[in-house]
Amino acid sequence: MFELDKLIRENIKRLVPYSSARDEFSGEAKVFLDANENSLGSPLPKWYNRYPDPHQQKLKALISVIKGVAPEHIFLGNGSDECIDLLFRCFCEPGKDNTIICPPTYGMYEVSANINDVQVRKAPLLDDFQLDLVHLENLADTNTKIVWLCSPNNPTGNSLNRQDVEAVLNNFNGIVVIDEAYINFSKQKSFLQELSDYPNLVVMQTFSKAWGLAGLRLGIAFASTGIIDTLDKVKPPYNIGQATQEIALQALENTGQVNDMILELTDMRSALADVLAQIPTVEKVYPSDANFILVKIKEARKVYDFLLTKAIVVRDRSKVKLCEDCLRITVGTEKENTDLVDALHEWVLMHV
Asked: Can you give the residue range of the structural domain that contains 35?
């Protein structure tokens, strides 16, 4: 049975969070003399001389409308990487607890675990890039606090079987994080609407991919109020800057444009996959629910290095287990995709 209180680190339970004067009143203040800001302004327009809303209330309210999740179930971080780090800091005792990842997957789960001195246990995906439920279950013990599942998965591009994910949620008594950074490019249903069914569920999403705002570094975690309250207790007091909040609010008013971009990218994904599959040195193009394609290609590392000479940067995954001889290729603009394909054809001609 899932009991959140038993998962929270004892020092975090005792922690008295930093509190500013702006945490202690509600409504709109007219005079701010509490935070030692520069009252004369700044070289920049607007109110950048003032600290931002520490709770991002307007932004969460608009996200709530779009996602259908109440604001009290929303946490905003400086990229999903901050959400990942805070989950470890809140729920995993350094040098004692462990976490489970399912490689090949997003590398920051392991990096962040190592930074926080949390043991990493690995349940590699099966050959079809799906969960090995038996291995995963055998790895878990009383000190396993978090299981990380990425769906659609990075770097493989596929979505995990929903029944398998539900099996983990139903049988694991720790926190299950489903990283849905690429969910907008998939026809698979998000797990957001299952938050009320699973108190141990954390769903991560981001503004970096479909929203095209990678430069903002804005990630989202959706979870029970108990988990969100714990993250809020530990986060820096003003972790999301004023400019980021303002730009994100503007973007959220343009969901139609975002939806059009998603459709265009998924169409180009299909077209690029078809073209790549015809290149002689390409051995396999894996199906993708993301905005990238995993491609198995002969002499992948040499092809990667050749593309660099053409000022084309892709991701070399050739040394990753289950991704041997693979390159991960983001769907670019039409010109970028054409430049990539032309370079690959040039490589073929050079090695006939």
From this structure: 4-253
Q: Is the pTM of this model over 0.90?
A: yes
Distance between CA atoms of residues 150 and 144, nearest Å: 18
Contact 80, 154 (CB under 8 A): no
Query: Domain of 305: which CATH number?
Result: 3.90.1150.10
Q: Count the domains in the chain.
A: 2
State mean pLDDT over 271-293: 98
Q: Would the pLDDT of 23 be above 80?
A: no
The mean-pLDDT minimum among 36-50, 82-96, 145-159, 241-255 falls in 36-50
User: What are the DSSP calls for 288-312, one per residue?
Assistant: -SSSEEEEEETTHHHHHHHHHHTT-
Tell whether 290 and 236 lie within a shared domain: no
Confidence of residue 205 (pLDDT cuts 50, 70, 90): very high
Which SS3 state, helix, strand or coil, does residue 327 take?
A: strand
Among 236, 253, 270, the domain boundary falls at: 253
Q: What is the CA radius of gyration of the chain?
A: 22
Burial class (CB in 10 A: 0-12, 13-18, 19+), 173: middle
Q: Which helix (H) or strand (E) holds 329?
A: strand 326-330
With H, G, I as helix, E, B as strand and everything else as coil, classify residue 98. Answer: strand
The model's confidence at residue 129, banded by pLDDT at 50, 70 and 90, is: very high
Q: What angle do CA 303, 307, 308 make, to 5 degrees?
A: 120
| pLDDT mean across residues, the chain | 96
Peptide linkage before 104 cis (omega within 30 of 0): yes
